[in-house]
Design brief:
This is Pyroglutamyl peptidase. With 429 residues, the protein is an alpha/beta fold. It has 2 domains: 137 residues, no CATH class; 251 residues, Peptidase C15, pyroglutamyl peptidase I-like (Aminopeptidase). The strands form 4 sheets. Strands 2-3-1-4-14-5-10 form a 7-stranded mixed beta sheet, with helices on both faces. Strand 11 and strand 12 form a beta hairpin. Helix 5 packs antiparallel against helix 6.
Amino acid sequence: MLVVTAVVGTMAGTAPVSADERATRAVEGARGGSSAAAAAEATVEERRLDRPAPREILRRSGFDSVADRFAVALRSADSYAEARRVVDRQGSALWRRAVDRAQGRGPVRGDLSRDDDRPLYWARLGMTRELRSWEPRFALSAEARGRLLGELERTSRGQDTMDFPGAGRTAGGRGFKRVVLTGFDPFTLDRDVRISNPSGATALALDGTWLRTADGGLARIETAVFPVRWADFAAGTVERTLRPRLPEADLFTTVSQGRVGRFDIERTNGAWRGGFPDNENVSRTETVPVAGPAAQPQWTSTTLPYQAVVAAETGRFPVYDNTSVTEIPEGGTEPVVRPDGPTPGSTARAGGGGSYLSNEIAYRATLLRDRLGLHGTLPGGHVHTPVLAFGAGNADPATGTVTDPEFVRNRLDIIAQVRAIVAVAAARR
């Protein structure tokens, strides 16, 4: 068992450069490489770009020229400041283009359905690979390249544009509720490189949209997408993104892909990383690394109105209030599954959402909520979607196609049901 200890970030506070930002810079600098040669080496994620399915997804979505255009723009930069402007503009443009595509704006390029989240994922990796191998005409340290990579990650994921309009009022003067929603990149790509993540697709479909809640009110949804990488979470990407947003939100939900054929509202989140490999094929088995580990709870809980959500008719998939966890009981040594939640004094080994990054984003977001003093006033927690399945006869990645009608229908149904779940949850605020 690999045990790694790390301390990152201030969950709350106003220091100009927080501990989690310093950790983020360290991680980004490491990704930038310790030399020009190291910087040019593609990551595990980027190397998957050369497989046929990602190339087809990019071509059939019209996103196949994104990386090349980014490379041309980079070559025109004659200073770090100009390079940063290029990264900021083109990263933000990629996010906006993916959102517009998902929401039916702009020209149709290619024959992939608009709801597809995969063009954003693979186009971003094309951009990071270009940035990693770029040889500028000016001196660029590994640390500076790492900062550019971090900027590209944030801007192309919508993490820095989760801004709600006005001061709690619509243009007509009527109040509205503010909803923060997050999704994830595709993952388990070595098992099937064609995979899409319905949570990421949902984030694209709902970003910046207005929602009529179940009680007739209005809600504005702002979204972002997160990587499936342990290191980014340890470096504070969740806290950095959500800390400014949660105090102004009326509801938040982290969303990820979960179990087959069902939605789950995860009641309890655990402070444990179970070791499943991430998108860089890195494994971590350890307590979730956060600031102030001496005061770190083993468990956090949802404040979503799970009873109302479970009781509502939100779509074709059943929705469950999932209360199960895995713990080491106080005084014990072996993990025990508890169907009704943790017992006092126990040590976490899996939350309701498991021990992977879906559990971790839920743990971090709800811990941030609590450390900001919002537990009693801000509904928030995690929603697991059904697994997005390919159609019958298209399940084998060795012989299957990158899309099919059932695959698209399943994704659209999941997106619609997440939207309906949010409408119910926001009505209970």
